Amino acid sequence: MEKWYLNDNPQTKDDGIRNFRSKPWNLFRSFRRIPKHRDVSDDLATSKKFVKSCIGNGLGPVPDATIRDYVAKRQGWPGPSSVTYRFVFAGKIYTFKAWKNEAVHKYIANDAKIANDLVRLKHKNVRKVFAYYQDLEGFLQEFLPLSLQQLVKKKELPHCEGRLSIMCDIAEGLRYLHNCQLVHNDLKCTNVLIDRSKGIAKLSDGCINNGNDTQVKLALSTQIDKIGYCCEEALAGRIAFSNDIFSFGAICLVIVSGKPIYARDRKPSLLKEYLLNTSYKNWKYLKDENIKWNKKLTMFKTDRPRKALLGLAANCLSETAQDRPTIDKVSQNCQQLLINWKGNVGSH
Predict the structure, then answer these.
(1) Backbone φ/ψ region at 254: left (φ over 0), alpha (ψ -120 to 50), beta
(2) Which of 102, 168, 287, 301 has the highest count of CB atoms within 10 angstroms of its CB?
(3) Domains identified in the chain and CATH numbers
(4) Cα–Cα separations (whole angstroms), residue 190 to 74, 96, 123, 206
């Protein structure tokens, strides 16, 4: 596999990216200002009392008192539904996400199975959750500072193979969740994190719900960062696997075009209108001029990967949930496109 995460984008002028091979931390700082981390384990050098924080999963890796003290003294990064804190404990960087949304916290706190499900998830394309701290109303998570949204915003998406790899990773992460009877239900570019050290994408920060639990009704707030990513069913509070398929289609559209899913000053504002709306349909607008999707000519057909991806996005973005493909079909299509692309490039 081509290590796209180490390849320099010709259009990129960021020294942090060019110096990633020798100074990986420069890359992290080039995307978001991160204050110098103080190892808070020093504050508890004489304390060996670890509180049993994660329900049914033994001891959390960081004591409650440590997180509580850090949260009280530091200002985190506020988001629409949570506040994120980053700190070092015992030489390792962690992220602690405290929920601001009372409905989300109540939903998780009232069902120990949900917290356990999150902690027990183990897949290379799903962000690791180390523990749930009920008293602190949040999760301790793997530290991953770079999101797909940042790559799109800074026009630093990788080239074709890298984009296909990201889509394969997202599909595989969703396939794992769906096989566990879980729905992400809040999939968007900000919740797709990039682990450049391993060259993989990981799903993060969804209000992950039981796929078979039809009694669950947790409506998503209509925040601007969800516009274009969530289908009507998800916004209304219906939990279904097809919600994630719709969101995948939106992300696929963003990755192919290199354009944001929603732009207030764009007419039409929603990117999918250029794909599906007969009045505005313009697939040329959905072309990223920074990359070139090579066609593969054979005796029997012509493979057009960009057209195939836009077709996949169109199917996923269907207004009718029953018309959307399953995640197995989506993953299979993405994997085949990546295989074909590698064969096409290798044959030149």
Answers:
(1) alpha
(2) 168
(3) 13-142 (3.30.200), 148-346 (1.10.510.10)
(4) 23, 17, 19, 10
Can you say whether the dihedral through the CA atoms of 326, 327, 331, 334 is positive or negative?
positive
Name the H helices within the chain: 15-18, 24-31, 64-73, 102-109, 112-120, 148-153, 160-179, 232-236, 241-257, 273-276, 305-316, 327-346
**Range list of H helices, 184-291:** 232-236, 241-257, 273-276
Instruction: Categorise residue 258: left if φ over 0, alpha if ψ from -120 to 50, beta otherwise.
Output: left
* β pairing state of 296-297 and 182-183: unpaired
Give the 3-state secondary structure of residue 216. Answer: coil
SS3 content of the chain, % helix, strand, coil (to 5): 40, 15, 45
> Residue 203 and residue 244: Cα distance in Å, rounded?
11
Record the tokens describing residue 102, joined without a space: 């009372």
Closest listed residue to residue 127, CA positions, set 206, 203, 207, 208: 203
Q: What are phi and psi of 94, to 5 degrees?
A: -125, 160
Judged against a pLDDT cut of 50, whether residue 254 lies above it is answered with: yes
User: Are 16 and 154 in contact, with CB atoms under 8 Å apart?
Assistant: no
The Cβ of residue 149 has, within 10 Å, a number of other Cβ atoms equal to 19
Report the alpha-carbon angle 220-258-313, nearest 5.
Answer: 60
Section 1-12 average pLDDT: 40
Query: Distance between CA atoms of 333 and 10, rounded to whole angstroms?
Result: 29
What's the pLDDT tens digit per position in 70-113? 988 888 888 777 899 998 999 999 999 987 766 666 666 666 67
Distance (Å, rounded) from C-alpha 132 to C-alpha 134? Answer: 6
Give Cβ neighbours of residue 300 (< 8 Å, ≥ 6 apart). Answer: none
* Closest alpha carbon to 231 in 144, 163, 148, 321: 321
Is the pLDDT assigned to residue 24 strictly greater than 80?
Answer: no
